[in-house]
Amino acid sequence: MSAPLAVASLLVALMAACAPAEAQLNGAEGAGELFKALNNLGRCREATGTTEDEVRRMIETHRVPTSRNGQCLIACMAETYGVMREGRFSADAAMQLADNMLQKIGQMSGSLRGEIQHVIKTCSSAGTPDMDACETAASVANCGVEESRKMRTMRGHERSSISRFG
């Protein structure tokens, strides 16, 4: 595990988009980011009453929790990292957070940034005005997970097409 766990913890959607970068930030900086993310995750877990099992399942499976507590955990982390304000997802803040992380791993000009930008843009309007912060966070996260899966599938098809004809 490394610094992108912070992204993972704050919003499952960003975690799915950033997963390829996980191994690229390590050493003291990676350890510091991981420590900070785990502290924030622990604080939000306690504040929302989310169980350790549910947190583990979320991280291991990249699935959005279905319980109210689990959804509020995602909202708490998103608010902690500034990607949700007043119960609404902020695409600008999410992209800024992603850019900060990508800069640390030297991927600012890579395709990863474009993929993250696509997920954020596509999912920034997920949810409805009548949803509370927990429901909104879960809706954005579900969208992000689905969009990330679509992109991984497309990349897989591109690679297999290239290898067949290359």
Automatic annotation (TrEMBL):
Keyword terms: Signal
A Pfam cross-reference name: PBP_GOBP
Range of residues in the leader sequence: 1-23
One term under GO cellular component: extracellular space
Alphabetized GO MF terms: odorant binding
GO BP field: sensory perception of smell
Protein name: Uncharacterized protein LOC117646797
Lineage: Eukaryota, Metazoa, Ecdysozoa, Arthropoda, Hexapoda
Gene: LOC117646797
